[in-house]
Write a structure and sequence with these properties.
about 60% helix; about 0% strand; mainly alpha
């Protein structure tokens, strides 16, 4: 027995608006959500709608619940959020400039950068919101700048207590 949905049926005005807009919706997700609501208005259950639209029943249930909660805006907003913005060439140049600048010139208490220290400096300076060490390493390589390998190794040795 199919799970019952506690979702309101679309009103006649909603159905007319969806039928008119169905062909003009630019994204697949928006069209699928509009079709799911129209099938639901016709009396089909979520599993039958999922089979008709070649989607997972949970996806259809989520679409119907979103329509119940937000109305027409749920269909219009069904487009995927834009991808996070990457680093611009100017930002990559700035990161390389910072990496080539000695930390003590910026008022920091150490003589060489490590990936961790440079990452922490960039995050504290609000240069970016998120940045992993691996991504920072790739940015430096992309900009033609690398941290000296000896600086990273010597930093690791001093933290572990070994002497050179």
């Amino acid at each position: 027995m199919p799970r019952s949905l506690k979702v309101r049926r679309p009103r006649a005005a909603d159905i007319r608006r969806l039928e008119v807009a169905l062909e003009d919706l630019p994204q697949h997700r928006q069209r699928r959500r509009a079709e799911a609501v129209l099938f639901y208005a016709a009396g089909l259950e979520a599993t039958a709608i999922a089979q008709a639209l070649a989607a997972h029943p949970n996806t259809i249930r989520a679409d119907l619940h979103a329509f119940d909660r937000d109305g027409w805006w749920a269909v219009e907003a069904a487009g995927r959020a834009p991808a996070p913005r990457g680093f611009t060439p100017e930002q990559i140049t700035e990161v390389c400039r910072l990496a080539e600048t000695a930390p003590y010139e910026l008022g920091l208490p150490y003589g060489r950068w490590s990936l961790s220290k440079l990452r922490d400096y960039l995050l504290k300076g609000r240069f970016c919101r998120h940045l992993s060490r691996e991504h920072l390493r790739r940015l430096l390589r992309k900009g033609g700048c690398t941290l000296p390998a000896s600086a990273v190794r010597s930093s690791a040795r001093t933290h572990s207590g070994a002497r050179s």
